[in-house]
Amino acid sequence: SAAARRPWRLFGAMCLLRLPRITQPLEKEEEEVAALMQQVEGELEKSHYSDHEIRKLEEEEQLKRRRESLYDEDEARGKTVIMAQDLEEKWEQKFLQFKAAPRITDADKSNDRTSLNRKLDSNLMLLVKQKIGNQELWLLPQVEWQPGETLRSTAERAMATFLGDHIQAKVLGNAPYGIYKYKFPRAIRTENNVGAKVFFFKAFLQSSDLSQAELKADYLWVTKKELGDYLKSEYLKKVNRFLLD
């Protein structure tokens, strides 16, 4: 059959990304622009009263009229008893109690690359260790295409194979983002078995809780800069072409 004579074995691979949870630190130029915008906005705030400021002025006028015995009690009927000054004091108390979470997590400190709770200001990509021939290599999750499948469904099956069916991810598009082609060693290469073509798809992780996931291989969550510690150079070049940090 035509399938039996196919010289290239086809694979679908999934580039699964955990998106950043916090913003990256500002560069020097960004800090300067932010300071300038804050100054401009500060001047605008001085020239225009907000709704809250207008309300506060009206309440101050009412208190002044009350002290001068010119305040009409009928004006207060049906109005809220919570005044603008009370709200400001409440907001101030909440602000004083607020404590920002640290940007550097315990996983960062221990360099635990199996944790999703690291490098919160960067994309993280899932790598799994797979056996290719007689080698064990770090790769994006991949499985071989089966007749009747689309390449996207093959890539989705690859993701489910290593993470289980509980994984929640949004796959982007039906077309692959890249392709990696390689030939088999001459010792096992034949006319009908020349090499493999790996088609890369991309997905965003929707949930950070993988407690229900059935992890079936060694895995890592790494940044773009860390990919070079694990991927072969030619494979890395193909991945870097479609991976944005």
UniProtKB/TrEMBL annotation:
The keyword Protein biosynthesis does not apply. GO terms for molecular function: structural constituent of ribosome. Pfam families: MRP-L46. It is found in: Mitochondrion. Keywords: Mitochondrion, Ribonucleoprotein, Ribosomal protein, Transit peptide. Residues 8-108 form the Large ribosomal subunit protein mL46 N-terminal domain. GO terms for cellular component: mitochondrial inner membrane; mitochondrial large ribosomal subunit. InterPro entries: NUDIX_hydrolase-like_dom_sf (IPR015797), Ribosomal_mL46 (IPR040008), Ribosomal_mL46_N (IPR021757), Ribosomal_mL46_NUDIX (IPR033650). Belongs to the mitochondrion-specific ribosomal protein mL46 family. This is Large ribosomal subunit protein mL46. It comes from Cnemophilus loriae (Loria's bird-of-paradise).
